[in-house]
Design a protein that fits this description.
354 residues; 13 helices; GDP-fucose transporter 1 isoform X2; transmembrane helix; Sugar_P_trans_dom
Length: 354
């Protein structure tokens, strides 16, 4: 009996040790994935700002920079698709990509919204700077509420609206403080508002057009960027950017094309690490991580560019971040409540005794 007792005790200790090892392994994976998301996202913002507004480059061609990043994304998607087809038995989770003109035409409305999103996003970053980028492009949550009501007839709770009010208050305070410091650019605010609008529209249109590509985010990424590559060409010609690029004195330098390609790779990678973070955590944790990342990004930008900001300027950032966090938290609680109310009804229907 004593031997049996000691054996079960050892089994219990072994199971506990295994559970601890599994927990530690998962915790390490989560830390690595979140750190990777932060690194890729923050680096991408700084890289894009360098390409769009660096005095050392002095290239006034934001559409060309965006166009080239779309080209890199298309090539990477196609390359990874071919690689996955050569190694079908591997753990490489990437769909095969076959060009289909019908699909390309079908998602054109989404592609137009996508072009607006990435263009205004980069224009906002060019004129607004990295430090004020979080506040300047913070209205996507507000537009989500407005568009959901206008197009989908979805109402928003009072607590969620209060969170939106905090974001809006932080936005106006930030504009006021930028004006006080003499660094306010109204064109950058317009681009920031338009970028926020198109981010919200892109989220809604993506859900609508995903079935066209069998629910594959990567296929949608491929066709979206391919459409963007085609549509950017006449836009660049119309705005004279092709002439600007042709006359650019660093066009033949390895450094320029290296930085451009690196920006494209990070632009592609952000989609992958975003999906990875959601997979290893949850959509709520991803949003919280994104809010915390925005805070770290702002602090890094102020330190890197050696800027001095007032207390009220920092307060505007804090209001935007806390409002975004609050909105995410409120919406997650509402979704959880709806699920809890829905599940008992499903159980009642499936219970034969009812």
């Amino acid at each position: 009996m004593a031997l049996m007792g000691s054996s079960s005790s050892l089994d219990g200790q072994g199971e506990e040790k295994t559970a601890q090892e599994l927990f530690l392994t998962r915790a390490v994976k989560i830390v690595v994935v979140v750190s990777l998301y932060w690194f890729v996202s923050i680096t991408m913002v700084f890289l894009n700002h360098y390409l769009l507004d660096s005095p050392s480059l002095n290239l006034d061609a934001p559409l060309f920079v965006t166009f080239y990043q779309c080209v890199v994304t298309v090539l990477l998607c196609k390359g990874l698709g071919l690689l996955a087809s050569f190694f079908p038995a591997s753990s490489m989770d990437f769909p095969s990509l076959r060009f289909d003109l019908k699909v390309l035409r079908s998602i054109l409305p989404l592609s137009l919204v996508f072009i607006g999103m990435i263009t205004f996003n980069n224009l906002c970053l060019k004129f607004i700077g990295v430090a004020f980028y979080t506040v300047g492009r913070c209205l996507s949550t507000i537009f989500n509420v407005i568009i959901s009501f206008l197009l989908l007839k979805q109402t928003t709770s009072l607590y969620a609206l209060l969170s939106c009010g905090i974001i809006l208050g932080g936005f106006w305070l930030g504009i006021d403080q930028e004006g006080e410091e003499g660094t306010l650019s109204w064109i950058s605010i317009v681009f920031g508002v338009l970028a926020s609008l198109f981010v919200s529209l892109n989220a809604i249109y993506t859900k609508k057009f995903l079935p066209v590509v069998d629910g594959s985010v990567w296929r949608l990424t491929f066709y979206n960027n391919l459409n963007a590559c085609i549509l950017f060409l006449p836009l660049m010609l119309l705005l004279g950017e092709l002439k600007t690029v042709y006359q650019f004195d660093k066009l033949g330098t390895l450094h320029f094309w290296g930085m451009m390609t690196l920006g494209g790779i990070f632009g592609f990678a952000i989609g992958y690490v975003t999906g990875l973070q959601i997979k290893f955590t949850s959509p709520l944790s991803h949003n919280i991580s994104g809010t915390a990342k925005a805070c770290a990004q702002t602090v890094l930008a102020v330190l890197y560019y050696e800027e001095v900001k007032s207390l009220l300027w920092w307060a505007s950032n804090l209001m935007v971040l806390s409002g975004s966090f609050s909105y995410t938290w409120v919406k997650s609680l509402e979704m959880k409540k709806v699920q809890e109310e829905h599940n008992p009804k499903m159980n009642e229907k499936s219970d034969p005794t009812v």
